[in-house]
Amino acid sequence: VQLVESGGGLVQPGGSLRLSCAASGITSDYYAIGWFRQAPGKEREGVSCISSSTGSTYYADFVKGRFTISRDNAKNTVYLQMNNLKPEDTAVYYCAADSFPIMLAVGWHTADDYDYWGQGTLVTVSS
Length: 127
Prior knowledge:
By secondary structure, this protein is mostly beta strands. It has one helix spanning about 105, and strands at about 1-5, 10, 15-25, 30-40, 45-50, 55-60, 65-70, 75-80, 90-100, 115, 120-125. Strand 7 (about 65-70) and strand 8 form a beta hairpin.
């Protein structure tokens, strides 16, 4: 399984970015893709998640109303649309695949549940 993130960059506060996570090698029809982020000196935290089978989505409270996760199954790609970005959103963003998701509503943000990780893409929000 390979996950490749793209779309990071430098943006001013209030601006927008769209991250992409291109997945390959996933054979299961039932998996989840999560977005995590890690800022310097901080622990990795869950941002959002989407189920491949149901399309159910989950968000951390600190991004609700600003970020939107979506999927294009034909392209095996998951997107994270990030609007109204704040300086505190600055971090390396990772996408990850959970090949055997259980009770996503409760545990989607648990990094240890994810089996595969991308290399990360840096998002910097600064004026």
